[in-house]
């Protein structure tokens, strides 16, 4: 069918003709290259009209097609005995036994947050929740990973304040607990903050849904908020660098309505329970276009869409606008012909707008009708499966070779240990995040056993003894200094956190936040980080079951630190195994597992003292990591561990302090070491865990650990209200836990309060 | 003892209330969709927390017009127990069943924490299993919990023993006289911002909420026994 080439009559704005699009190269405004435009022309066998061009441009954007990252993502392991659904659907699904599965995914909303932080962050949460319940799962937990510039900047304080409020608002209203996350601050994110939101859901195996259209003549049902002009081109916006002009893209940011989301969630889960749905997909990035095209392509069918039947918020919307709108809280359903009334009954109960907006057809045509005219007619596979792929070449930057020298050691080792500890605890990246997480309802649904503030959050499963541990992690400084090691470390640390909570790591979801992949050094970072992550995932037996790629995180031509963020889910076999990082009782013996190499490259201390990072990050021996995790989990499951804390940013000194804070229990450390004080206390060597165990169990615990080939030393005990550290017979730190805690607790509230007066 | 948990569009602590009643008391509990007017078959009603109607206009302001509120008002007038938790408290205030009004937290942010409280009045059907002035810990999670009433009302509340819970330590929302929960004059309707249903077993971090449910059951059993 030849679609109407003259659609001007249907729109409030004059749309260019196909010839104008070609002659004036208007496709470049939609982010398409001349070569891509030629491909479109070839696929259609004619010139595209404006609506068709819009559809191609969003479907072929990096955000929807992964055209720059697909070849690299194929290198990640996606299979495993527990994987029920890998990448490619709304979210990954992992078997957890008892006929149940855990469904989870992480996604970025960086660009929207940069220009409109409240709605940008809020709708990021909304989108990831829909990804999970479109699988048929009940969302049970939210986490997030945030990156901002230094809090000295009023703009950064505004961004943090609003982004956190937006995340809180959305999750709290929908009634899903936000149980964990991380927030880090670095100048690299000043113009380009990162907001990565993760959602975890629970499902019975038989309820797992797919985003697919099937069965000729079956109706396609639209449900949820009506379609407005908000968010048009959001997917393209997310695939460009940020610039001064980005403020003009503010209309590309959608406005969220968590109340609508709650209704949509309950209605969709009711339909899942009734077993009515054949296919369901969220209208997320690229809205109606992406959801309908992907479902159609996946089903190997065609589709007719009738835009006049789409619930609309505004009058006079053109097909282009309806197809590209990213209005939130919308879902597309495919059901068996004749069951429309059953569906409508449920949707009406929840007072949700809904309409049959299309039919599944034979063949492969994706056709759009508006005011009785065909306005688009596209072979659907060309939108999805035939999207262009860019095979890029990375290039190792010169600076990587030059960074090897560890010339900073001398300057760092001269710092007074107590002062170093105080500075590191006051650094916003390490300081208490209570100011952030107390704005999130972390307890709704009454399943949260470990709330924010420990290594990993834990929720328990109703009616069962088991639970899920969850963590999000990513240290971009390590990745900046060595993408391969940094990528692997992100996975290892996330797994270690989950192990410290008493869980066996199951699988990960990842969010890859990088700069412009067209730059060879950025592509090199991406490539190496992915390889590092893949290696760690294989070694630790945690496949990647889904995720998101966010490229073009740049401002004024300068890329952010490469920031892969790993969301890990682990299985706690029994509630008795749930462990936190807090010291529990006076007299417990402190055991340090793993070897300390005193590595300060990319460390928090280096950043604090020198104002920059250099050298190489801590090295990672994945075999040692695996042995450590196995030993820790073994000890916890044996039932004799009071607390377990992963050593990460800030090293041993910070780990001890953090473990002391929750109950105000101090520690006396007394060690002999070949290292000097600063590298010993603040080095960030990987694969280490601090345990406290009851005295009577200490010897046996050490023997158990050493039997597994893991270095273990007794470094002191939980005692008093003082943190006292003796190294080689000299007391190098002697501070009240409470005074250290004050520094740690007040750093962020003090920095943020400035925003009220400045 | 038969419990009803009315469910409004946007309620999100309804399931938690049901779990608490089942876990602590093992008594029957039904979810009642907001369009149902008749609650005659129930002995007690728990109006759950959440964001009914998205808290649009004002927390609780829309829910109070739902048909089910006719049943709630009737139950209250018959002397049955009506407990409003968080958003349920706000709804009962809007419906005129409880005194005062709720303002946005004084720090303008949502606050979730485990909060120390004292039981000011332990002579109510809801609190009889607590000791007088008992220090307890209950989770809070709200953005509009800043209880307000005028001086005259405050004096009345104090004189009538209608102030049932107060915050201890730092007041998390700026409420008048650290008020966390109030009852009606008759004592059969209680509203509180903290969440007793989130503190019933050890792993939740506090079990102090359980006594509110056991109090209600004991009251009902004694009333039935006396009849």
TrEMBL record, chain A:
ATP binds at residues 66, 105, 510, 547. Pfam families: AIRS, AIRS_C, FGAR-AT_linker. InterPro entries: PRibForGlyAmidine_synth_PurL, PurL_linker, PurM-like_C_dom, PurM-like_C_sf, PurM-like_N, PurM-like_N_sf. Mg(2+) 2 binds at residues 131, 282. Residues 218-369, 585-722 form the PurM-like C-terminal domain. HAMAP family: PurL_2. This is Phosphoribosylformylglycinamidine synthase subunit PurL. It comes from Marininema mesophilum.
UniProtKB/TrEMBL annotation, chain B:
GO terms for molecular function: ATP binding; glutaminase activity; phosphoribosylformylglycinamidine synthase activity. Keywords: ATP-binding, Cytoplasm, Glutamine amidotransferase, Hydrolase, Ligase, Nucleotide-binding, Purine biosynthesis. It catalyses: L-glutamine + H2O = L-glutamate + NH4(+); N(2)-formyl-N(1)-(5-phospho-beta-D-ribosyl)glycinamide + L-glutamine + ATP + H2O = 2-formamido-N(1)-(5-O-phospho-beta-D-ribosyl)acetamidine + L-glutamate + ADP + phosphate + H(+). InterPro entries: Class_I_gatase-like, PRibForGlyAmidine_synth_PurQ. GO terms for cellular component: cytoplasm. Pathway: Purine metabolism; IMP biosynthesis via de novo pathway; 5-amino-1-(5-phospho-D-ribosyl)imidazole from N(2)-formyl-N(1)-(5-phospho-D-ribosyl)glycinamide: step 1/2. GO terms for biological process: 'de novo' IMP biosynthetic process. Its EC number is 6.3.5.3, 3.5.1.2. The keyword Hydrolase applies. Pfam families: GATase_5. It is found in: Cytoplasm. The keyword ATP-binding applies. Part of the FGAM synthase complex composed of 1 PurL, 1 PurQ and 2 PurS subunits. This is Phosphoribosylformylglycinamidine synthase subunit PurQ. It comes from Marininema mesophilum. The gene is purQ.
């Amino acid at each position: 069918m030849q679609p109407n080439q003259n659609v001007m009559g249907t729109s409030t704005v004059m749309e260019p003709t196909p010839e104008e699009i070609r002659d004036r190269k208007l496709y470049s405004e939609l982010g398409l290259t001349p070569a891509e435009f030629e491909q479109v022309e070839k696929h259609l066998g004619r010139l595209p009209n404006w609506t068709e061009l819009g559809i191609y441009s969003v479907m072929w954007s990096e955000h929807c097609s992964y055209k720059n990252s697909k070849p690299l993502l194929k290198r990640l392991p996606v299979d495993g005995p527990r994987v029920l659904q890998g990448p490619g659907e709304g979210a990954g699904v992992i078997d957890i036994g008892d006929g149940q599965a855990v469904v989870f995914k992480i996604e970025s909303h960086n660009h929207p947050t940069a220009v409109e932080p409240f709605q940008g962050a809020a709708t990021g949460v909304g989108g990831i929740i829909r990804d999970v319940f479109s699988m048929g799962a009940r969302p049970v937990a939210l986490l997030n990973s945030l990156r901002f510039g230094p809090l000295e900047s009023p703009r950064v304080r505004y961004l943090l304040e609003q982004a956190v409020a937006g995340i809180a608002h959305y999750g709290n209203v929908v009634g899903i607990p936000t149980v964990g996350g991380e927030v880090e601050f670095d100048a690299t994110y000043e113009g380009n903050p990162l907001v990565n939101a993760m959602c975890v859901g629970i499902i019975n195996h038989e309820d797992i849904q797919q985003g697919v259209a099937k069965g000729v003549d079956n109706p396609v049902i639209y449900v949820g908020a009506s379609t407005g002009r908000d968010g048009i081109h959001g997917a393209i916006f997310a695939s460009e660098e940020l610039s001064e002009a980005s403020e003009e893209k503010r209309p590309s940011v959608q406005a969220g309505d968590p109340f609508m989301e709650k209704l949509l969630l309950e209605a969709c889960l009711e339909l899942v329970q009734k077993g009515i749905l054949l296919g369901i997909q969220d209208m997320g990035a690229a809205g109606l276009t992406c959801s309908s095209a992907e479902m159609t392509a996946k089903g190997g069918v065609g589709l007719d869409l009738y835009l006049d039947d789409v619930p609309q918020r505004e009058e006079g919307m053109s097909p282009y606008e309806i197809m590209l709108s990213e209005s939130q809280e919308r879902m597309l359903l495919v059901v068996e012909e004749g069951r429309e009334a059953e569906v409508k009954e449920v949707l009406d109960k929840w007072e949700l707008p809904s309409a049959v907006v299309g039919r599944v057809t034979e063949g492969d045509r994706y056709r759009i009708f508006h005011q009785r005219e065909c306005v688009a007619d596209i072979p659907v596979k060309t939108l999805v499966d035939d999207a262009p792929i860019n095979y890029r070449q990375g290039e190792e930057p010169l600076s990587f070779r030059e960074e090897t020298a560890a010339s900073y050691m001398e300057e760092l080792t001269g710092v007074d240990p107590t002062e170093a500890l105080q500075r590191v605890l006051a650094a916003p990246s390490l300081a208490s995040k209570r100011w952030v997480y107390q704005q999130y309802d972390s307890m709704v649904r009454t399943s949260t056993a470990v709330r924010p503030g420990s290594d990993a959050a834990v929720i328990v499963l109703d009616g069962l003894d088991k639970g899920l541990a969850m963590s999000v992690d990513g240290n971009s400084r390590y990745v900046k200094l060595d993408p391969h090691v940094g990528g692997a470390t992100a996975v290892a640390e996330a797994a270690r956190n989950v192990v410290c909570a008493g869980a066996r790591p199951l699988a990960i979801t990842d969010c890859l936040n990088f700069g412009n992949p067209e730059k060879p050094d950025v592509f090199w970072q991406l490539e190496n980080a992915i390889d590092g992550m893949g290696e760690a995932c294989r070694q630790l037996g945690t496949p990647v079951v889904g995720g998101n790629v966010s490229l073009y995180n740049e401002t004024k031509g300068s890329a952010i630190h490469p920031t892969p963020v790993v969301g890990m889910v682990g299985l706690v076999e029994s509630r008795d195994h749930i462990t936190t990082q807090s010291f529990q009782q006076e007299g417990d013996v402190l055991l340090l597992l793993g070897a300390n190499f005193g590595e300060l490259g990319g460390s928090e201390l280096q950043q604090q003292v020198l104002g920059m990072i250099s050298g190489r990050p801590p090295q990672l021996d994945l075999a040692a990591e695996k042995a450590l995790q196995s030993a820790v989990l073994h000890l916890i499951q044996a039932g004799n561990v009071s607390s377990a804390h992963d050593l990460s940013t800030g090293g041993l000194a910070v780990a001890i302090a953090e473990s002391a804070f929750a109950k105000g229990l101090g520690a006396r450390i007394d060690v002999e070491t070949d290292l000097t004080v600063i590298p010993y206390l603040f080095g960030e060597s990987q694969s280490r865990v601090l345990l406290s165990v009851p005295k009577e169990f200490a010897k046996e615990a050490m023997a158990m650990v050493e039997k597994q080939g893991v270095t273990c030393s007794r470094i002191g005990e939980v005692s008093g209200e003082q943190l006292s550290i003796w190294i080689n017979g000299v007391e190098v730190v002697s501070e009240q836990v409470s005074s250290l805690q004050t520094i740690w607790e007040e750093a962020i509230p003090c920095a943020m309060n400035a925003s009220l007066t400045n | 003892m038969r419990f009803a948990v009315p469910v409004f569009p946007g309620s999100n602590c309804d399931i938690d209330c049901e779990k608490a009643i089942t876990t602590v008391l093992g008594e029957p509990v039904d979810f009642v969709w907001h369009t149902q007017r008749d609650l005659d078959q129930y002995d007690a009603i728990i109006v759950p927390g959440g964001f009914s109607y998205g808290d649009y206009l004002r927390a609780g302001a829309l829910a109070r017009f739902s048909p089910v509120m006719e049943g709630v008002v009737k139950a209250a007038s018959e002397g049955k127990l009506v407990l409003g938790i968080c958003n349920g408290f706000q709804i009962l205030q809007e419906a005129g069943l409880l005194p005062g009004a709720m303002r946005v937290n004084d720090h303008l942010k949502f606050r979730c924490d485990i909060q120390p409280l004292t039981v000011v009045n332990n002579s109510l059907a809801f609190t009889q299993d607590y000791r007088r002035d008992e220090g307890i810990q209950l989770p809070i999670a709200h953005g509009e919990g800043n209880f307000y009433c005028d001086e005259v009302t405050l004096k009345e509340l104090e004189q009538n023993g209608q102030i049932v819970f107060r915050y201890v330590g730092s007041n998390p929302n700026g409420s008048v006289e650290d008020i966390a929960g109030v009852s009606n004059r008759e004592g059969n309707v209680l509203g509180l911002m903290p969440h007793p249903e989130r503190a019933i077993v050890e792993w939740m971090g506090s079990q102090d909420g359980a006594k509110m449910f056991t109090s209600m059951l004991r009251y009902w059993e004694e009333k039935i026994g006396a009849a």
